[in-house]
Every structure is written in C-alpha cells, then in structure tokens.
UniProtKB/TrEMBL annotation:
It holds the Pfam family Biotin_carb_C. PANTHER family: CARBOXYLASE:PYRUVATE/ACETYL-COA/PROPIONYL-COA CARBOXYLASE, METHYLCROTONOYL-COA CARBOXYLASE SUBUNIT ALPHA, MITOCHONDRIAL-RELATED. Keywords: ATP-binding, Biotin, Ligase, Nucleotide-binding. It is an enzyme of class 6 (ligase). Gene3D superfamilies: ATP-grasp fold, B domain. This is biotin carboxylase.
Amino acid sequence: MIDSLLIANRGEIARRIIRTARRLGIRTIAIHSEPDADMPFVLEADEAVCVGPANPAQSYRNVEAILAAAKSTGAQAIHPGYGFLSENAAFARRVEENDLIWVGPSPEAIEAMGDKINARNLMAAAGVPVAPGTQQPVGDVDQAIAAAAGIGYPIMVKAAAGGGGMGMAVANDEAALRTEVEKVRAFAERMFGSGDVLLERYFPRVRHVEVQILGLADGRVIALSERECSVQRRNQKLVEEAPSPAVGPALRERFLAAAVKAGEAVGYRNAGTVECLLDPATGDFFFLEMNTRLQVEHPITELIHGIDLVEQQLLIAAGEPATIATTTTGHAIELRINAEDPKRFLPGPGKVTTWVEPTGEGVRVDSGYAEGTTVGMSYDSLMAKLIVFADDRDTAIARARAAVIGFQIAGPKNNLPFFAELLDNDEFLTGDYDTGIVGRMRS
C-alpha cells in the first residue's frame, strides 16, 4: 500500500483525502499557497509545503513546484483531487516520469477524454449513445451554419477543450449561432488554450445523469450507480442526489452498461464519471463527457454503497484489489454550499466570522473552511458540501431541510437560503425536474 501521499489540491477535497489517508496509516503532505497557510487542510496534514502565491498558476497549477515538494518530502504518490491539475495529462505524465504513483487514470485516458470531439467519436465507436453533432472542429461560422442545418436547432456550442460547465452557449437560430460560435471560440482560446468548437443538438428539457465507474487494477471496469445532477446554475451543479428519481431498473441497466463500455474504450483505471443527458420524455440518453478524476459529488455514491471512494482510488493506484459493494441502499443528497448570493449566484467572498456545522443522524459535512478563515477571490467559491443520507428520498429531504437550518455561516455570502427554497419546491419534491429548474425558480 502507499505509505506517503502528497495532495495536489486545497480546501474540502484536500481534507477529505487526508481523512481517508490518516485512517489507512498513510503519511500526508499538503501543498498550499501563501494565503492558505493557516487553512484547516494545511493544519491537518502531517507535513505542508508552500508552493507559491495566491495565483493558482503560480501555486496549485505550478507543476515544477509541486514535483519539488513531492521530492523534498519523500512522497510516494500524488492525489490531484478535482479541478486544478486533476485532468492535466501532461502533469500525470510528469508524475509518473518522476517515479511517483499517480492516483488517477493514465495520461492517455485523460488525453482521450479531454477533447470533447475526440471523446464523442470514441464513444460512438464503442457503441455509447451520443447526441447528434459534429465529428470535427467547426472551422468557421459558415461551416457551423451548414452543420447546424443537418443537426437541427436549437444548437449547443461547446469549447472542445472545455470542462466544468464553462465554454458553452445555446443558439436558437442562425443569427444567434453566428454570434455564439465566435464568443465561445474566443473564450476557449483564452481559458483553455484551444479555440476548437463543436456543435451538438440542444435539448431544452433534459436531465443530467452521471454514472460512477472504477477501472480496477486487474483491468476490469465496473459501474457503481447513477447520480442525478440536474439542479444547476450556469451549467454548473448545485445539488446532486443518488439514486436518480428519474431512473428505474431497466434504464439503470442501460446507463451502467454504457458507462462500462465508455471506460473500456479507453482502458480506464481508477475513479471516473461518465456524464449523460437524459431526455425524460423518451428515456433516451446521450454521452456528454467523461470526468477523469474524483467528482465533487462522490460522497452520495459512497453513502448509498457504504464504501470510501478515496480508499478505492488508493488501492487501485497501488495495484491492490479494490473492495467494492455494487449493491445500494437508501437515498443521499448533496448541497454545494458556495460563497455566493442566493439570488443571482454572484461571488460573495469574505472572512468567516461564524461557522457552525449541522449535526444529526444521516448528516455529513465535508468542509474546507472554519471560523476565522477567509474565502478569497482566487479560488472556487465552494466552502463545504452538506450531505444527507436516509432510508428513502422523503426522509433525506426532511433531514436536508433541518441541516440547512442548522448550518450557520456569517461573513461571506452563502446560498443556504436558496437550498431552503429548493427543498420546499414542488417540482423538486416530486422528483420530476430538469436542468431548467433553477431558471424557473428565478424567473
């Protein structure tokens, strides 16, 4: 088993990884930026190394500084968490070239899934359903208009190298397409270093459902279960639940089979997620993307399976047999507690003057902050994940309501009032909702 682990991340996911590593007797090394020196994840690690200033490019994305920290501390392995360098194939390759264990999929798998056009084509060849769309980057606006005529409006314009809900726009007609192609291309060049754009058919009423997969050390790929991720703002998730209230046994079998095909197509190892769009009217689903890392929402899968996914990642990376429970029980919900106002979801950073986490049966909080810490503008607005588990969905919702009331945060703005509203929303309560639910709540 791995004996020492450097966590190339910060905040709640760093604390989450440290918690499992400590239970397994693994020495932990935290890296941190200068302003993060007194954050909880730094204080909880066995060792800590400052890798640069607040700017992520000079700290949490600073490959040379991170590798130097691993060497100076005698780390045996690196866990990238999510975000930052977690889906950077070049970083994964550098880790392996330095004789360190990379806790994630191969650089080749990351590369294969990192480009959305390549990923679509690979999945189609493997028999995974994909939405109608382009098989090559759109060269210019005229090519986009010609392709859209065959796909049909509305059209989703996507940055081929994008991720995390960024670099996407919807065009309902040719005039809008002309504008959005250029906007997405410019954004993609600035953010991702590639201006390649693809087009896909946009489904106005759709659900976002994903499947957790594990590529085992023995070469097998298994699919655990699905998660519902349709409560979103600006294509970014706010709430997830497992299992999905929209997925019955027959549809679940189809989802899991497609996810296994997706993983096998790239020889996948370690934890990953196959994301799909589900048309609730027809029961048809389409491959969206594969996240080649641990997802933010992994705790709800852990709870319904009774497993620790970080532990499984470490076992697989060490070449050890994983200990997987494929059966599920109960219902879990995760709420992403962000430093943002609950109406327009604009960032609201600040110093935390009050931080009281809720407790009670079936309540779990994975947090990155504490009283006295500061939520700055340099990093993601996620402060904590409020996770609840119960025997059934109604009880899980009731526990979530109580936990939201019991979570006390002062200083930064936060979206707890939005969750209180959502948990009393009739559309959400019935389980018959889609990715437009937040827009309807705010219209």
